[in-house]
Design a protein that fits this description.
The complex is a heterodimer of chains A (247) and B (305). Chain A has 247 residues and is α/β, with parallel strands linked by helices. In chain A, 36% of the residues lie in helices and 24% in strands. Chain B has one domain. Chain B is built from three helices and 21 strands. In chain B, a hairpin with a 5-residue loop joins strand 3 and strand 4. Classes of the chains: A alpha/beta (247), B mainly beta (305).
Chain lengths: 247, 305
């Protein structure tokens, strides 16, 4: 399905991704996790074509898509749910679901995808995707849009961010349903144990590199036992963390 | 009417055959068709070009179509239309002007529409402006709309300038009495070297009167747009002015919304935003499979919807 070969990316002289090699197999639900700043979102954007890597190759269904535009990748069957959903003055929920489905979706099907994310179609279908919607509503609409796209590979960038607890339960069901019904691959960038728990495979990124890849049975216990790493200066026994003039 | 004339009418007033209800169709400075109903009378003015449209009190669910088309260059058509809407009437008025100019001379239509809504009357007013034609002559439309709203009356205005108008100055003046409401929705797109100027002057004179002005525009190429609004709150009232513009290429947009509160209980808000299409909006639509130009068109269509 998707193969990343030696992907590297730097910005402002900082190495964000270092020589990433990763394969996402057909029909797999893969969770990509790791500390903040480990390069997860950049990796997702590189797969979608939003960010261009400095080096490396991307193969999708055996085809080299490294130089494909965002639109070409979308047409090949890659979908991407933004961490911060984009607002549009004038475009409605219905408009975007229609575009996302390639105008293939009937109104009743659009209603179903909205219901799956806990939104009443009657209330939301004709609403503009603007600032009158809350962050949680925008996030749910974003996920519904991707469910409508039925892509071969769907990437979710931190789908849980901004979602309340009640919706979070539904969110897990949406991913499970998508996984079963669409029969495509799903890559979810997440910190949430419950999302990692439904993954077939977990990829742990750290400092721009893949630290580990394995089944949830292998990786999850290690992650849960690991806890947060303390400041390296404290590890080295320094007690005075001087933050530029702050004593 | 030939095919071109019929298509112009369809563009501006959605008329494909004889409209239902009252109508008055004007072509090249002359009335060419008219119908009145038991409740709606249309009378030709005697002192100047134009008509009086008189709607009886309590008239409900009736419509009035008064489209104008210009198919010749070198014509400056000025028309004065006065609407007298009786108490508690509730009607839809569809106006608009389409110009087909295939000459090198200017074709201009200036429609001066005055609305007088009696107590409790309700009007939905739809006005579309459109220009076309292979000639080099300008297509100019300068509409003036004067709105007098009596106690408890309500007017909703939808004005759209679709495309092809070389130059326009659109002026709207309104005076609202107690409990009157005015909602204005304006959509404009300019391209090439076109210019568009919109001026709203609204006096919220009566207690609990309210106005909402929402203007959205897209300025492409080297076109120039100007949005000016003056809302005066002279009583306990509510006013909201919202103007958004998408600017593209080498266009220029000026926005000058002014609110003046002359009363302690006047609540007035204005919001103005001008900007190019956000990159993240284009990217989002491209991730859904649209090309960059399709995404741009989709954003503009939605914005001007």
């Amino acid at each position: 399905m998707l193969e990343l070969q030696n992907i590297s990316f730097s910005r402002d002289n900082k190495k964000i991704l270092r020589n990433i090699n990763l394969t996402i197999d057909d029909k797999k639900l893969v969770a990509i996790t790791g500390p903040n700043g480990s390069g997860k979102s950049t990796l997702a954007k590189i797969i979608m074509g939003i960010v261009t890597p400095d080096s490396g190759k991307i193969l999708f269904d055996g085809k080299d898509i490294t130089n494909f535009s965002i639109s070409q990748r979308a047409k090949e069957g890659i979908g991407f749910a933004f961490q911060q959903p984009v607002k549009f003055k004038g475009l409605t929920v219905k408009d975007l679901i229609e575009i996302s489905s390639g105008n293939q979706m009937k109104v009743c099907e659009a209603c179903d995808v909205l219901a799956d994310v806990g939104l009443c179609a009657q209330e939301y279908l004709n609403r503009e995707i603007n600032s009158e919607l809350s962050g949680g509503e925008l996030k749910r609409i974003e996920i519904a849009m991707l469910a409508a796209k039925k892509a071969k590979l769907t990437i979710f960038d931190e789908p849980e961010a901004g979602i309340d607890l009640w919706s979070f339960n539904n969110l897990i069901s949406v991913f499970e349903k998508m996984h079963q019904e669409i029969q495509g691959s799903i890559a979810i960038i997440s910190h949430q144990e419950r999302i990692l728990n439904i993954a077939d495979e977990i990829v742990l990124l750290s400092n721009g590199q893949i630290e580990e890849i394995g089944s949830k049975e292998e990786i999850l216990p290690k992650l849960l036992n690991k806890g947060a790493k303390p400041c390296h200066k404290l590890n080295e026994g320094e007690t005075n963390c001087n933050l530029g003039g702050v004593n | 009417m030939d095919k071109m004339e019929k298509e112009l009418l369809k563009k501006i007033a959605d008329i494909e055959k004889t409209p239902m209800g009252a109508y008055n169709i004007r072509q090249d400075g002359k009335g060419i068709a008219r119908n009145t109903t038991a409740n709606i009378d249309i009378v030709t003015k005697e002192d100047k070009p134009g008509i009086d449209i008189i709607v009886k009190p309590n008239t409900k669910n009736e419509s009035i179509h008064i489209p104008v088309i210009l198919t010749q260059g070198g014509l400056n058509d000025i028309v004065y239309n006065d609407f007298y809407i009786g108490e508690n009437a509730d009607v839809v008025i569809v106006a608009g002007c389409g110009i087909h100019n295939s000459s090198c001379e200017t074709a201009e239509h200036d429609g001066i529409h005055s609305f007088h809504l009696s107590k409790g009357a309700k009007v939905k007013y739809i006005e579309k402006h459109y220009g076309e034609g292979e000639g080099t002559g300008d297509r100019i439309l300068n509409p003036q709309t004067i709105v007098n709203l009596d106690e408890g009356s309500n007017m909703e205005m939808e004005t759209v300038q679709i495309e092809g108008v070389s130059s326009t100055i659109r002026e709207t003046k309104a005076n609202l009495a107690k409990d009157a409401t005015l909602v204005i929705s304006e959509r404009i797109m300019t391209t090439g070297k076109q210019t568009a100027k919109t001026v709203f002057d609204v006096d919220l004179a009566g207690e609990n009167s309210s106005v909402h002005v929402a203007s959205r525009s897209v300025a492409k190429n080297n076109s120039v747009q100007e949005f000016i609004s003056n809302v005066n709150g002279n009583n306990k009232c509510f006013g909201h002015v919202e103007c958004d513009a998408i600017i593209m290429d080498h266009a220029k947009v000026l926005s000058d919304p002014k609110i003046t509160a002359n009363h302690i209980d006047a609540s007035l808000v204005h919001e103005a935003a001008i900007g190019k299409i956000a990159g993240e909006q284009l990217i989002k639509l491209m991730t859904l499979g649209l090309t960059e130009s399709e995404a741009e068109q989709q954003i503009i269509n939605g914005f001007l919807k």
